[in-house]
Amino acid sequence: MLYNISKFSEMTGLHQNTLRNWDALGKLKPIILPSGHRRYDDSHLNIIKNTNLPKKILKNVIYVRESTKLQSNSLENQLNKCKEFCIGKGITIDEVIQDIGSGLNFNRNGLNLLIKMIENDEVSKIIIFYKDRLVRFGFEILETICTFHNVEIIIIDKTDLEKSKQEEFVEDIISIIHHFSMKLYGSRNYKQKTKVIENELNSFKETEENVS
């Protein structure tokens, strides 16, 4: 009987990318149909069964993020809600990753660690409270990468909290201003050129908080 790569992956517990890599390395050569598709049979299953392969344990990872260290209480609250959700759903918590930084910054230590784990096929589920905790923009790209590696992203709260979005929007705008001002004006005098704009944005933020 012939099995396609998806079925063979399910039967053996080996990721499809692992099977493709083994094919490229000559470690486990599948049957190639005239159409170019890979197929495996019982002889391939016997090879897997007779090979002492280490069983990779996939992890369920909670990921939480806030923009600044001043929001440590909010970060802790976010983490507690994620833990409560996992306990309620019977999801084992294997690892917790916490990040401090703008959602526009893709070079966060925690995010980089998470992406590395995904690429190494070490993750089963990613649990986040809000969708934009991972990234403010480009979520679909990260979601696609997770799909390739059979990783499920679980978003606990899919509602939009206007106040928190306004606050982070201002922080993101300030972050963008600083980033591009550094490139335009250099590190010595960019602060003076952006201080007025930053103050105005912070005033807007405080006004919105008072209204709320």
List the helices and strands and how they pair.
Blueprint: H1 5-12, H2 16-25, E1 31-32, E2 38-39, H3 42-49, E3 59-66, H4 72-89, E4 95-100, H5 109-119, E5 123-128, H6 139-148, E6 152-155, H7 162-211
Parallel strand pairs: 3-4, 3-5, 5-6
Antiparallel strand pairs: 1-2
Mean pLDDT: 82
CATH class of the largest domain: Alpha Beta
**Secondary structure: number of strands:** 6
Ranges where pLDDT stays below 50 over 5 or more residues in a row are none
Quickly give the structural class. Answer: alpha/beta
Distance between the termini: 65 Å
> What's the SSE pattern?
HHEEHEHEHEHEH
Q: Write down the CATH topology of the largest domain.
A: Rossmann fold
Number of helices: 7
Largest sheet: 4 strands, parallel
Question: How much of the polypeptide forms β-strand, as a percent range?
Answer: 5-15%
The largest beta-sheet arranges its strands as 4-3-5-6
CATH superfamily of the largest domain: Resolvase, N-terminal catalytic domain
| Number of domain units | 3
Gross geometry: elongated
Rg, please? 23 Å
Percent of residues in helical segments? Answer: 40-55%
Name of the CATH architecture of the largest domain: 3-Layer(aba) Sandwich
